[in-house]
Amino acid sequence: MQQEEQQNKEDKEELVKEEVVQDAQEEGRYIYCVVEKGNTSEFQEKGIENNSVYLLCDGDLCAVVHTCPAKPYVSPHKEQVIDWVKAHQKVIDQAYAVFGTVIPFSFDVIIKGSKGKHSEQLVKEWLRSKEEELKKKIERIKGKQEFGVKIFLHEQEVMKAIMQSNKEIQNLEDKIKIAKKGVAYFHKQKIQAIIKKEIEKYAELYFKEFYKKIKQAAEEVRVEKAKKQDTFIMVLNASVLVKKEHVSALGDMLDYIHKKQGFSVEFTGPWPPYSFTS
Description:
This protein is of the alpha+beta class. The protein has 2 domains: 140 residues, no CATH class; 133 residues, no CATH class. Helices cover 51% and strands 25% of the residues. The strands form 2 sheets. Strands 1, 2, 3, 4, 5 and 6 form a 6-stranded antiparallel β-sheet that branches. β2 and β3 form a beta hairpin. The chain is elongated, with a radius of gyration of 29 Å.
């Protein structure tokens, strides 16, 4: 009888252990960003799906998190995903306002429990193991802001300038006036090829000029892939890391470019420095 009771007790204890391990694996921590605690030890905000956001700290470093099931945020409804992403960004913006410097995480980074360890413990262990690397990133971006800079050239104005100044094109146009249909088509195709080549030269020339100017006001510049948009040629597409005291200088320089004939500038931000912490 005593042996049976002892066995039942051991079975219950084992069952409890299994449930604890299962809970540890099923519960996760959603990470918004990492901050340096400083003098602020509390942070209260509502995050994705109105979850309570809090600081999970180890030493001077804190992860801004909420508790969640250990599974991705997935929905077939685009509007739902957009709402989640907006909530994610809102928390990072609030942390940025409170702490001044954040290492932002992309949407849907979730740490789940593993091998009997709770996700909270794993986040703390990760902060401890990456302490030196994370502090270097924080020092790199401290007192700085990220901006997006896109500079466009009006395609029609460039084409007009090329047509008026390029003698080879002018000679071909004269030949088209007296040429037969087949030959005229060949000349037109050649004109289009010349224009395309000249536009590429213009874009490269202005890219070098504007990159140099932006670099003077910025700490770091990360060039992104340029894309053609409607009737505009994107000369420069860049993420720019700028000291707060130099932002007005960058803005003045971009305003000068924007006022140049044939150009337009898109200047967005400030943003948490996603492009300079990955």
